[in-house]
Design a protein that fits this description.
By secondary structure, this protein is of the alpha/beta class. Helices cover about 15% and strands about 40% of the residues. Strand 7 and strand 8 form a beta hairpin.
Length: about 130
């Protein structure tokens, strides 16, 4: 497959052990209620045009996922997360002002924001 997009929508799933506990964390992370609930063990957030992140209660698979969302405005996104009481688990800085901030949910799943920052973001590496 070369050069042709076959995707119409993207749903990135994150398995969680305790749905209610994780739901509260992801509401804090995204700063909003889910966009919709397909059923009583899933919650979905729209994170961009045709792009969604969802959590699903799947205890046997919890804690093993990782995904990254490219932020339109990384500085504003990170400031919002900080205001909501969340700090990154890890920060990775790259060339030309690119940064990736990795957050860990209650199960250890990693959800990151990436993008260009107007200033150097300090590095963080937390031990679990």
């Amino acid at each position: 497959m070369t050069g042709t997009s076959i995707a119409q929508d993207l749903f990135a799933g994150i398995p969680v052990a305790d749905f209610d506990h994780s739901l509260a964390w992801y509401q804090q992370f995204f700063g909003v209620e889910p966009s919709f609930y397909p059923n009583d063990i899933e919650a979905v957030w729209a994170v961009g045009e045709h792009s969604y992140v969802y959590i699903e209660r799947l205890p046997d698979r919890a804690g093993r996922s990782m995904l990254m969302i490219m932020a339109a405005d990384l500085d504003t996104t990170v400031a919002g997360l900080t205001q909501r009481g969340l700090e990154p688990h890890r920060i990775e800085n790259y060339e030309e002002g690119m940064s990736k901030l990795v957050y860990a949910d209650p199960d250890g799943n990693e959800i990151s924001y990436g993008g260009v920052s107007t200033h150097t973001i300090g590095s963080v590496e937390r031990e679990d």
